Amino acid sequence: MGVIKDSFTKIREQCKELILTDKQIEEIMRRVIKEINRGLSKETHAEADVKCFITYVQDLPNGKEKGKFLALDLGGTNFRVLLIHLKDENDFEMLSKIYAIPQSIMLGSGTQLFDHIAECLANFMKEHSVYEERLPLGFTFSFPLTQLGLTKGILARWTKGFNCSGVVGEDVVQLLKDAIARRGDVNIAVMAILNDSTGTLMSCAHSNRDCKIGVIIGTGSNACYVERVENCDLFDGPKSGPNIKQHVMINTEWGAFGDDGALDFVRTEYDREIDQHSINPGRQLQEKMISGMYMGELARLAIVRFTKAGLLFGGVGSDILFKRGQFFTKYVSEIESDKPGTYYNCREVLEELGLEHATDEDCANVRYICECVSSRAAHLVSAGIAALINKMDEPSVTVGVDGSVYRFHPKFHDLMVQKIRQFVKSHISFDLMLSEDGSGRGAALVAAVACREAQ
């Protein structure tokens, strides 16, 4: 019993570095706002990590949008094409198909990528008998963009494992239009480019007018929010006068928060190792502490460290456990879904990893490590959301949230609600709303609103 208690105590002691204190969260909130203001300011935008790109989306849905719209959603290892028929406020039909993006295309040329997208788009239109129609399209492109208008977005850099040549510094809308033109067989009007956090905000705003923040916690992490135009130095358009819109959505790109060292005071050896072995070292440091692309690996690194120290599995690991990227983020959700005192999912996961010799105590320790990693992610996201809600200072704010981590982790929502409530000003009420397919439906809604405005 002494050894068990000892491993239990030692692991908890060493996991303390993965637990954010309230004081640290307050400091993170302070630094997030400072960085957001740097991104909004003309003078400091160039060197700011949190770029706060202006989206030029200024109108929220009002329920009067009608018609058929296409949406393209590119944000990870696959992309979706959607056909959305808006009939009235609560009545719409949505058809969609997922297409894979092979690794060779993710790391190939931009021309290959956009030709692949255009081909899938044309096939989809044939399948759904809209091949002959001219349809408006909203393009969700979930990578850092400098937007110069609603239909012009320059790729700042690739993230999430992509590295296509000839795209950084180019207008991705034009690259898509060129690929469609090369085919010459479909007629599409690209009405808007946006990212998935903007889509999430739009999608939730369609049914909830209080939605003013959109957050993604999936493969990557990002947030957008509604800002007053007067606070946006880089907004290229009239800021005052009759009929001038007062607000615009800001795509924060907060995944890059901490790239200047602002998070070093809470980063651990696991974070440093993940960053070192990533495709973009030194970049997207907050994202690497939060998102689904890295959460499983964070847990694996801690489990490996404790195994090698003899505190887990009697010091005997397995080839799979010691292999980078083999402890998937879904394992974290599965392990934490076990009822207290039971280890059914945990044992299944450990068996898949070749760790059949794990004891109940090992399972309890593995679950504790997973809880530390996922709680820290939830608390980091909460710090950013609470900071944004306080900055906006509206009496009531709904936060639209999408992404696989938020959707599938059993405790993420509750952890966030609890932590946000703790740090949001007492007079503000807030709500977290799961976005029903934000990046797809949201893209169609941005296109629909753009069509509505153009009429």
From TrEMBL:
Molecular function terms, GO-annotated: ATP binding; D-glucose binding; fructokinase activity; glucokinase activity; mannokinase activity
InterPro entries in UniProt: ATPase_NBD, Hexokinase, Hexokinase_BS, Hexokinase_C, Hexokinase_N
Official protein name in the record: Phosphotransferase
An individual GO BP term: glycolytic process
This protein's pathway: Carbohydrate degradation; glycolysis; D-glyceraldehyde 3-phosphate and glycerone phosphate from D-glucose: step 1/4; Carbohydrate metabolism; hexose metabolism
Function: Catalyzes the phosphorylation of various hexoses to hexose 6-phosphate.
Sorted UniProt keywords: ATP-binding, Glycolysis, Kinase, Nucleotide-binding, Transferase
Keyword 4Fe-4S: no
Family: Belongs to the hexokinase family.
Gene source species: Anopheles melas
Pfam families the record matches: Hexokinase_1, Hexokinase_2
Keyword rRNA-binding: no
